[in-house]
TrEMBL record:
Organism: Pedobacter chinensis
Keywords carried by this UniProt record: Hydrolase, Protease, Signal, Thiol protease
Name used for this protein in its record: NlpC/P60 family protein
Record-level Gene Ontology MF annotations: cysteine-type peptidase activity
All residue ranges annotated as the NlpC/P60 domain in the record: 46-168
Biological-process GO terms, alphabetical: proteolysis
Domain of life: Bacteria
Family: Belongs to the peptidase C40 family.
Length: 168
């Protein structure tokens, strides 16, 4: 009887240990910190201006609409126009190439939060604008994806970047 009791006790202990060990080995899901989305999230988290953070989060996902200037659709220059006005109190021209004319040129290495970046996707003229955030990321109204935080270091942008700088 005592031997049967000891055997049951050891069996229960063994089962308890196995259950404990198997629970410690359960699969953990983690977010890789080197993904594009994680890096964009880091750029947003590192913004100095909480007003800028709120402005961007309110607009992210709004679809692109040429000439648009509201949440029903917005274009790149309209987005830069509204952001500069609401966050920095600066009134820019409405068209991206005109916005580029009022910007004091800066190298990419010296850009600060709120500076503008200009692109030429269609040839020689500036036809796209975004707002620099930090760590190589910027926010813009993409024709395909709407308002989005994107990586300025992607070749698709590096190859067409024509000007960057600050309004003041």
């Amino acid at each position: 009887m005592e031997r049967t009791l000891n055997l049951k006790f050891y069996t229960l202990c063994l089962i308890a240990i196995l259950l404990f060990l198997s629970s410690c080995g359960s699969r953990k899901y983690t977010v890789r910190s080197d993904t594009k989305a994680a890096k964009a999230a880091d750029a947003m988290a590192n913004l100095k201006s909480k007003q800028l953070y709120k402005f961007i989060t309110d607009w992210v996902g709004v679809k692109y609409r040429f000439g648009g200037l509201d949440k029903n659709g917005i274009d790149c220059s309209g987005f830069a126009f509204l952001l500069q006005k609401e966050i920095y109190g600066v009134t820019l021209p409405r068209i991206s190439r005109d916005q580029a004319n009022v910007v004091k040129r800066k190298s990419i290495d010296h850009l600060k939060e709120g500076d503008l970046v200009f692109f030429s996707f269609g040839g020689n003229d500036i036809d796209h604008v975004g707002v620099y955030l930090n760590n190589g990321f910027f926010v813009h109204a993409s024709t395909n994806r709407g308002v989005i935080v994107d990586d300025l270091n992607l070749p698709a942008y590096q190859n067409v970047l024509v000007k960057s700088g600050s309004v003041n």
